[in-house]
Design goal:
The protein is an alpha/beta fold and 224 residues long. It contains five helices and eight strands, in the order H-E-E-H-E-H-E-E-E-H-H-E-E.
């Protein structure tokens, strides 16, 4: 399993662990370690911002030199990178691998074809549970207000939408992910997934003040 990199501050860090977790459920590769690939080991990602490129190349599965699982895990790394790129709206990304030579670290070499960059469709879906009090209409309005003029579906677009929606309430988590795609129009429907609002912390009752002992009464002197 990949190292957890989730953060409530950056939506792409929320999306990628979701991709990774679902991915490893169906993949037979059991990596002996994980590592970040350098730009020299991956071709085809030059047009991605450095921050996004580093993120999608982080914590990829590896196997030791000579292991019978090495080729299988290299293919898993390629498929995982492919899924990560598609989760960031590069829905036509294709990744192929080739064995590295003379490297004791056993890190794969990957070739990426990004394909077309998809735009955000005008339809936005909202997924929320019954404990969320904010209406889907307000969520959709907030999401659309964060869209760029060209409707580009980039990592920055996803993060901006997440930030706008997160301001609507005190949610446990807000994740923005690409959903169904129109491959002819090169557009994708975004899904805004909202976890329930954080309940207010219970307030401790202040301890009751100690009971005061009754003040002594001064008895009037009885005249003799």
């Amino acid at each position: 399993m990949l190292a957890a990199c989730a953060s409530r501050q950056a939506n792409t860090r929320e999306v990628l662990p979701r991709v990774d977790n679902s991915f490893f459920v169906r993949e037979p590769c059991k990596p002996t370690s994980t590592a970040s690939l350098s730009p020299k080991q991956v071709t085809g990602l030059d047009e991605l911002p450095a921050s996004v490129r580093n993120r999608v190349l982080d914590n990829l599965p590896l196997q030791a030199v000579g292991s019978t699982e090495r080729v299988k895990c290299q293919d898993t790394a390629a498929r995982l990178l492919e899924d990560r790129l598609r989760a960031l709206c590069w829905l036509e990304a294709r990744v192929t691998g080739e064995a590295g030579t003379g490297t004791p670290a056993a890190q794969p070499r990957l070739n990426v074809q990004l394909g077309a960059r998809y735009q955000v469709d005008t339809i936005i879906w909202v997924s929320e549970n019954k404990n969320v009090k904010v209406s889907p209409t307000r969520v959709i309005e907030a999401a659309k207000s964060a869209l760029p003029k060209d409707n580009a579906c980039t990592a920055s677009t996803l993060e901006d939408i997440r930030a706008r929606v997160a301001k609507l309430g005190d949610f446990q988590q807000v994740v923005v992910m690409p959903g169904p795609a129109d491959r002819q129009q090169k557009k994708v429907t975004l899904v805004v997934d909202i976890k329930e609002e954080t309940p207010p912390a219970p307030q401790e009752k202040a301890p009751a003040p100690p009971e005061k002992a009754p003040a002594p009464q001064n008895k009037a002197a009885t005249p003799k």
